[in-house]
Amino acid sequence: MKDSWKAGAAATVITPAEPMWLAGWAARREPASGTGIELFAKALAFEDEAGVRAVIVTADLIAIPHLLAEAVAARVRKRWDLPRERLLFNASHTHTGPEIRPDKVQFFEIPTEYAARIGPYVAFLEERMAGVIEAALTRLEPVTLRVHEARAAFAVNRRTSGGPVDHDVPIVAARRPDGSLLAMLFGYACHNLTLPPTYCQFHGDYAGVAQQRLQEQYAGAMALFLAGAGADQDPSPRGTIELVRTHGATLAGVIATALGSDGISLASSLAVAFEEITLELRPMPAREALETDAHSEDIPRRRKANYLLGALADGRTFATSQRCPVQVLRLGRELLLIALGGEPVVDFALQFKKEFAGSKVWVAGYANDMFGYLPTRRVQQEGGYEAERAVLWSALPMPLAESAEAQVVDAVGRLVRQVSS
Questions:
Q1: Average pLDDT over residues 132-146
Q2: Where would a tag sit more exposed on the chain, N or C end, judged by fewer CB atoms within 10 A?
Q3: What is the pLDDT of residues 359-405, one digit of tens each?
Q4: pTM for the full model?
């Protein structure tokens, strides 16, 4: 049959059992004091009529670092013989989840007590994420898949008033033969940071609220959020818990409306391609420039310069490149899902939608690793936070070189051709 898919969905709570430092805001000076809403890791497994499988894993986290993704993938490969490229990991990039990146400790000035909790929590995540993937695979059942599209307008370009945005809300709905909804996977290109730095509770922000509302509306169905290419996009307005609820309700509402339409049926064929490309970094500045920055009145710049000078004094060498995962999934001939590592700016989504316009194109960011911002050449030439300043809070020695965009675009083109052959 054209639409003879199988799908399975599972979820597990990943809210820390003890206070942890929250990720995303360097200005924070206290740990989480409670839970606003629970944090989840979820998995949606697909199998086409030929028995080809893939699993999409989502989590209410700032990031799913490379080492965590690889450790989970190794467990799943051992148990299910599922190749690494058939797992897509995506973080919602909530700024009210636990910090799980050890390299952020000194840049965010995380107290020793809370820094010590990162390792055990990451081990807990590895077990929970592997378990939720296995649960989804064991629950495969016949479904039809349809792709729907909605729009939500609360994302704005935070770099430039009236700058480029992507208000599309892509949705894949998996329905059982009786018409009931098994799962809905949806995306949006917008930073998941409606809540301010002063809010110190675990919370999934607008994406967490949207998932919660959809699951309440569609009893027995699972909602999964796939963060888009929203590195330069912010929710507007933002800053209160009430606005989190408003944006979450807006997103859930447009999705519910779209699910009432026919959508486009996805033929039962699945193809996946995965590659880790090497992006060059800008050259290191001369020691004299670092020594000048070490006395800067700009505290983040001074701290980063001292970090780099300390590394030089210890005889350490600096990376000159950064690994970036790129993944493409084709579901039928109707849907092309492009997943990029790091924090890609919206230009990538707009470009790929135009370039591969013969299919419905869905672009996700924060996928399979989160090493930092992934700007286009336009953004790099403009400068600013996403292009260069963000690296001051990172162990990455320098921002990406201007060749990054062309390398990513070339890799996506190769993988799209691979899954389309």
A1: 98
A2: C
A3: 899 999 999 999 999 999 999 999 999 999 999 999 999 999 999 99
A4: 0.97
For the beta carbon of residue 89, count every other beta carbon within 10 angstroms.
32
Query: What is the C-alpha to C-alpha distance for residues 338 and 44, in angstroms, rounded to an integer?
Result: 17
Contact by Cβ (8 Å): 324, 369: yes
Q: Which single residue is written with the structure tokens 């370039």?
A: 355
**SS3 string of the chain?**
CCCCEEEEEEEEECCCCCCCCECCCCCCCCCCCCECCCCEEEEEEEECCCCCEEEEEEECCCCCCHHHHHHHHHHHHHHHCCCHHHEEEEECCCCCCECCCHHHCCCCCCCHHHHCCHHHHHHHHHHHHHHHHHHHHHCCEEEEEEEEEEECCCEEECCCCCCCCCCEEEEEEEECCCCCEEEEEEEECCCCCCCCCCCCCECCHHHHHHHHHHHHHCCCCEEEEEEECCCCEEECCCCCHHHHHHHHHHHHHHHHHHHCCCCEECCCCEEEEEEEEEEEECCCCCHHHHHHHCCCCCHHHHHHHHHHHHHHHCCCCCCCEEEEEEEEEEECCCEEEEEECCEECHHHHHHHHHHCCCCEEEEECCECCCCCEECCHHHHHHCCCCCCHHHHHCCCCCCECCCHHHHHHHHHHHHHHHHHC
Nearest to 409 by CA among 361, 362, 376: 376
Asked if 90 and 366 count as a contact pair (C-beta separation under 8 A), the reply is: yes
**302 has a pLDDT exceeding 80:** yes
Q: What percent of the chain is modeled with pLDDT above 90?
A: 98
Q: How is residue 400 written in tokens?
A: 């990406």
**How many CA atoms within 13 Å lie on the side-chain side of 81?**
1
CA distance 215 to 350: 30
Tokens 């590592």 belong to 341
Q: Is the pLDDT of residue 1 over 50?
A: no
119-158 burial code (b ≥16 CB/10 A, e <16): eebbeebbebbbbbbbbbbeebebbbbbbbbbebebbbbb
332, two tokens:
């039928």
Task: Supply the angle between the helices 404-420 and 346-355 in degrees, to the nearest 10.
Answer: 40
